[in-house]
Specification:
- The protein is an alpha/beta fold and 264 residues long.
- It has 7 helices and 12 strands.
- It folds into 2 domains: 63 residues, Hypothetical PUA domain-like, domain 1 (Ribosomal Protein L25, Chain P, Beta Barrel); 181 residues, Alpha/beta knot (3-Layer(aba) Sandwich), CATH 3.40.1280.10.
- Strand 3 and strand 4 form a beta hairpin.
- It starts with 5 loop residues before the first strand and ends with a helix.
Protein backbone atom coordinates (compact mmCIF):
# COMPACT_ATOMS: atom_id res chain seq x y z
CA UNK A 1 0.00 0.00 0.00
CA UNK A 2 1.34 3.43 -0.94
CA UNK A 3 2.20 5.77 1.93
CA UNK A 4 0.79 9.29 1.74
CA UNK A 5 3.69 11.73 2.04
CA UNK A 6 3.70 15.46 2.61
CA UNK A 7 5.45 17.14 -0.33
CA UNK A 8 8.10 19.48 1.06
CA UNK A 9 8.11 23.05 -0.36
CA UNK A 10 10.47 23.88 -3.25
CA UNK A 11 12.84 25.91 -1.02
CA UNK A 12 13.50 22.85 1.15
CA UNK A 13 16.44 20.78 -0.09
CA UNK A 14 16.70 18.11 2.60
CA UNK A 15 17.41 17.79 6.30
CA UNK A 16 17.10 20.83 8.56
CA UNK A 17 14.62 23.26 10.13
CA UNK A 18 11.87 24.85 8.06
CA UNK A 19 8.99 27.26 8.67
CA UNK A 20 5.66 26.45 7.04
CA UNK A 21 2.71 28.76 6.45
CA UNK A 22 -0.25 29.22 4.11
CA UNK A 23 -1.54 26.03 2.50
CA UNK A 24 1.22 23.92 4.09
CA UNK A 25 0.29 25.10 7.57
CA UNK A 26 -3.41 24.57 6.84
CA UNK A 27 -2.84 21.02 5.58
CA UNK A 28 -0.58 19.90 8.43
CA UNK A 29 -2.19 21.70 11.38
CA UNK A 30 -5.83 22.02 10.37
CA UNK A 31 -6.43 19.06 8.05
CA UNK A 32 -3.97 16.56 9.56
CA UNK A 33 -4.26 18.20 13.01
CA UNK A 34 -0.59 17.73 13.86
CA UNK A 35 0.75 18.97 17.17
CA UNK A 36 4.25 19.51 18.50
CA UNK A 37 6.17 16.25 18.43
CA UNK A 38 4.00 14.63 15.73
CA UNK A 39 5.69 13.33 12.58
CA UNK A 40 4.53 12.52 9.05
CA UNK A 41 6.26 10.88 6.07
CA UNK A 42 7.52 13.51 3.63
CA UNK A 43 9.35 13.75 0.33
CA UNK A 44 11.03 16.19 -2.02
CA UNK A 45 9.67 16.69 -5.52
CA UNK A 46 12.18 14.14 -6.88
CA UNK A 47 10.87 11.45 -4.52
CA UNK A 48 13.68 11.63 -1.93
CA UNK A 49 12.12 10.49 1.34
CA UNK A 50 12.16 12.12 4.74
CA UNK A 51 10.14 12.48 7.90
CA UNK A 52 8.75 15.83 8.97
CA UNK A 53 8.59 16.36 12.74
CA UNK A 54 6.56 19.32 14.02
CA UNK A 55 8.46 21.27 16.69
CA UNK A 56 6.36 24.44 17.16
CA UNK A 57 2.81 25.35 16.18
CA UNK A 58 1.63 28.96 16.06
CA UNK A 59 -1.55 30.64 14.90
CA UNK A 60 -0.66 30.82 11.21
CA UNK A 61 2.79 29.21 10.98
CA UNK A 62 4.62 26.20 12.32
CA UNK A 63 8.22 25.08 12.66
CA UNK A 64 9.31 21.59 11.71
CA UNK A 65 12.44 19.50 11.41
CA UNK A 66 13.15 17.47 8.27
CA UNK A 67 14.67 14.13 9.26
CA UNK A 68 16.10 11.29 7.16
CA UNK A 69 13.90 8.32 6.35
CA UNK A 70 15.55 5.11 7.61
CA UNK A 71 14.02 3.16 4.71
CA UNK A 72 15.34 5.51 2.03
CA UNK A 73 17.35 2.76 0.29
CA UNK A 74 14.47 0.45 -0.48
CA UNK A 75 12.45 0.39 -3.70
CA UNK A 76 9.39 2.53 -4.31
CA UNK A 77 6.27 1.76 -2.35
CA UNK A 78 4.14 1.31 -5.45
CA UNK A 79 4.40 -0.37 -8.84
CA UNK A 80 4.96 3.02 -10.48
CA UNK A 81 8.70 2.58 -9.90
CA UNK A 82 8.65 -0.63 -11.97
CA UNK A 83 7.43 0.86 -15.25
CA UNK A 84 8.89 3.42 -17.67
CA UNK A 85 7.96 7.07 -17.04
CA UNK A 86 4.82 8.34 -18.74
CA UNK A 87 4.58 11.86 -20.17
CA UNK A 88 1.36 13.51 -21.32
CA UNK A 89 1.11 16.36 -23.83
CA UNK A 90 -2.43 17.63 -23.26
CA UNK A 91 -4.18 20.06 -25.59
CA UNK A 92 -5.44 22.96 -23.49
CA UNK A 93 -9.19 22.38 -22.90
CA UNK A 94 -11.81 25.00 -22.17
CA UNK A 95 -12.29 26.65 -18.80
CA UNK A 96 -10.48 25.04 -15.89
CA UNK A 97 -10.73 21.51 -17.24
CA UNK A 98 -6.92 21.44 -17.32
CA UNK A 99 -7.04 21.40 -13.51
CA UNK A 100 -8.86 18.06 -13.67
CA UNK A 101 -6.41 16.73 -16.26
CA UNK A 102 -3.44 17.49 -14.01
CA UNK A 103 -5.14 16.05 -10.94
CA UNK A 104 -6.05 12.80 -12.69
CA UNK A 105 -2.66 12.45 -14.36
CA UNK A 106 -0.96 12.71 -10.97
CA UNK A 107 -3.29 10.07 -9.56
CA UNK A 108 -2.53 7.81 -12.54
CA UNK A 109 1.22 8.04 -12.01
CA UNK A 110 2.18 10.34 -14.90
CA UNK A 111 5.67 11.79 -14.45
CA UNK A 112 5.30 14.89 -16.64
CA UNK A 113 2.38 16.93 -17.97
CA UNK A 114 2.82 19.52 -20.75
CA UNK A 115 -0.15 21.71 -21.77
CA UNK A 116 -0.25 22.25 -25.53
CA UNK A 117 -1.97 24.84 -27.72
CA UNK A 118 -3.52 23.27 -30.84
CA UNK A 119 -5.62 24.38 -33.80
CA UNK A 120 -8.89 23.35 -32.14
CA UNK A 121 -8.05 24.46 -28.60
CA UNK A 122 -10.57 26.93 -27.19
CA UNK A 123 -7.60 28.96 -25.97
CA UNK A 124 -5.47 29.25 -29.10
CA UNK A 125 -2.88 31.74 -27.89
CA UNK A 126 -0.52 32.02 -24.96
CA UNK A 127 -1.91 34.36 -22.24
CA UNK A 128 -0.02 37.37 -20.92
CA UNK A 129 2.95 36.53 -18.70
CA UNK A 130 1.20 37.46 -15.44
CA UNK A 131 -1.83 35.30 -16.22
CA UNK A 132 0.44 32.51 -17.45
CA UNK A 133 2.38 32.59 -14.19
CA UNK A 134 -0.82 32.41 -12.16
CA UNK A 135 -2.02 29.41 -14.17
CA UNK A 136 1.28 27.61 -13.77
CA UNK A 137 1.33 28.23 -10.02
CA UNK A 138 -2.24 26.95 -9.68
CA UNK A 139 -1.43 23.78 -11.61
CA UNK A 140 1.64 23.23 -9.43
CA UNK A 141 -0.53 23.50 -6.30
CA UNK A 142 -3.06 21.07 -7.75
CA UNK A 143 -0.34 18.57 -8.63
CA UNK A 144 1.22 18.80 -5.19
CA UNK A 145 -2.12 18.33 -3.43
CA UNK A 146 -3.01 15.37 -5.63
CA UNK A 147 0.39 13.76 -4.99
CA UNK A 148 -0.12 14.03 -1.24
CA UNK A 149 -3.61 12.56 -1.45
CA UNK A 150 -2.79 9.58 -3.66
CA UNK A 151 0.59 8.58 -2.21
CA UNK A 152 2.64 9.35 -5.33
CA UNK A 153 6.29 8.30 -5.17
CA UNK A 154 7.42 11.65 -6.63
CA UNK A 155 5.93 14.98 -7.64
CA UNK A 156 5.25 15.06 -11.39
CA UNK A 157 6.64 17.93 -13.42
CA UNK A 158 4.01 20.37 -14.69
CA UNK A 159 5.76 22.08 -17.58
CA UNK A 160 4.92 25.49 -19.10
CA UNK A 161 2.47 25.41 -22.01
CA UNK A 162 3.90 25.11 -25.53
CA UNK A 163 2.70 25.17 -29.11
CA UNK A 164 2.24 21.76 -30.74
CA UNK A 165 5.11 22.51 -33.12
CA UNK A 166 7.44 22.77 -30.10
CA UNK A 167 6.89 19.16 -29.04
CA UNK A 168 10.18 17.28 -29.48
CA UNK A 169 10.62 14.29 -31.76
CA UNK A 170 10.90 10.82 -30.24
CA UNK A 171 12.97 7.82 -31.28
CA UNK A 172 10.79 4.84 -32.21
CA UNK A 173 13.33 2.30 -30.91
CA UNK A 174 13.62 3.94 -27.47
CA UNK A 175 10.31 5.69 -26.83
CA UNK A 176 6.68 4.67 -27.28
CA UNK A 177 4.98 7.87 -28.49
CA UNK A 178 1.24 7.83 -29.19
CA UNK A 179 -1.54 10.22 -30.11
CA UNK A 180 -5.18 9.38 -29.48
CA UNK A 181 -7.40 9.20 -32.53
CA UNK A 182 -11.13 8.63 -32.83
CA UNK A 183 -10.72 6.23 -35.77
CA UNK A 184 -8.87 2.86 -35.85
CA UNK A 185 -5.78 4.04 -37.76
CA UNK A 186 -3.26 2.13 -35.62
CA UNK A 187 -1.00 -0.35 -37.39
CA UNK A 188 -0.91 -2.61 -34.31
CA UNK A 189 -2.49 -2.98 -30.90
CA UNK A 190 -1.45 -1.13 -27.77
CA UNK A 191 0.01 -4.46 -26.59
CA UNK A 192 2.18 -4.58 -29.68
CA UNK A 193 3.45 -1.04 -29.26
CA UNK A 194 4.42 -1.70 -25.62
CA UNK A 195 5.96 -5.16 -26.02
CA UNK A 196 9.49 -3.95 -26.75
CA UNK A 197 11.81 -2.57 -24.10
CA UNK A 198 11.19 1.18 -24.02
CA UNK A 199 12.73 4.16 -22.23
CA UNK A 200 9.48 6.06 -21.71
CA UNK A 201 5.90 6.42 -22.92
CA UNK A 202 4.70 9.71 -24.43
CA UNK A 203 1.01 10.41 -24.99
CA UNK A 204 -0.45 13.32 -26.99
CA UNK A 205 -4.11 14.07 -26.26
CA UNK A 206 -6.06 16.48 -28.45
CA UNK A 207 -8.85 18.89 -27.56
CA UNK A 208 -12.55 18.26 -28.12
CA UNK A 209 -12.68 17.85 -31.88
CA UNK A 210 -9.27 16.17 -31.95
CA UNK A 211 -6.12 17.18 -33.80
CA UNK A 212 -6.38 18.86 -37.19
CA UNK A 213 -5.09 16.99 -40.28
CA UNK A 214 -1.87 19.07 -40.43
CA UNK A 215 -1.30 18.38 -36.74
CA UNK A 216 -1.74 14.63 -37.29
CA UNK A 217 0.91 14.74 -40.00
CA UNK A 218 3.20 16.74 -37.71
CA UNK A 219 2.81 14.24 -34.87
CA UNK A 220 3.57 11.31 -37.16
CA UNK A 221 6.64 13.15 -38.43
CA UNK A 222 7.78 13.54 -34.82
CA UNK A 223 7.53 9.79 -34.19
CA UNK A 224 4.01 9.49 -32.75
CA UNK A 225 1.79 6.53 -33.66
CA UNK A 226 -2.03 6.61 -33.63
CA UNK A 227 -3.85 4.73 -30.87
CA UNK A 228 -7.53 3.78 -30.95
CA UNK A 229 -9.19 3.08 -27.60
CA UNK A 230 -12.68 2.21 -28.78
CA UNK A 231 -15.76 3.89 -30.24
CA UNK A 232 -16.85 5.74 -27.12
CA UNK A 233 -16.42 9.52 -27.18
CA UNK A 234 -14.42 10.80 -24.20
CA UNK A 235 -14.38 14.31 -22.85
CA UNK A 236 -11.04 16.00 -23.41
CA UNK A 237 -10.31 16.09 -19.66
CA UNK A 238 -10.98 12.33 -19.30
CA UNK A 239 -9.13 10.96 -22.32
CA UNK A 240 -5.62 11.14 -20.84
CA UNK A 241 -6.66 9.37 -17.63
CA UNK A 242 -8.43 6.65 -19.63
CA UNK A 243 -5.41 6.07 -21.87
CA UNK A 244 -2.81 6.23 -19.09
CA UNK A 245 -4.79 3.71 -17.02
CA UNK A 246 -4.75 1.26 -19.94
CA UNK A 247 -1.03 1.83 -20.57
CA UNK A 248 -0.15 1.40 -16.89
CA UNK A 249 -1.95 -1.93 -16.59
CA UNK A 250 -0.24 -3.25 -19.71
CA UNK A 251 3.19 -2.11 -18.50
CA UNK A 252 2.70 -3.53 -15.00
CA UNK A 253 1.60 -6.90 -16.41
CA UNK A 254 3.92 -6.88 -19.43
CA UNK A 255 6.15 -9.69 -18.21
CA UNK A 256 3.23 -12.07 -17.65
CA UNK A 257 1.39 -11.37 -20.87
CA UNK A 258 4.49 -11.41 -23.09
CA UNK A 259 5.50 -14.75 -21.59
CA UNK A 260 2.06 -16.18 -22.28
CA UNK A 261 2.11 -14.81 -25.83
CA UNK A 262 5.43 -16.49 -26.52
CA UNK A 263 4.12 -19.84 -25.27
CA UNK A 264 1.25 -19.67 -27.73
Amino acid sequence: MAVKRFVLPPDCHGEGEITLSGNDFHYLCRVRRLKGGDSVPAMLADGSRYFLSLTERGTNTCRARVLPDPDTDRQGESGLEEIPPIEVYQAVPKGRALDDVVRRCVEAGVTRVVPVYTDFSVATAQPESSERNRREERLQRIARSAAEQCGAVRLPEIAPAVELSQIPSFAAKEDAAFFLHQEPLAEQSLHGYLEAAIRKVVLAVGPEGGFSPPELRLLEHKGFCPVYLGPQVLRAENAAFFAVAAIRVLLLERESWTTRNRQT
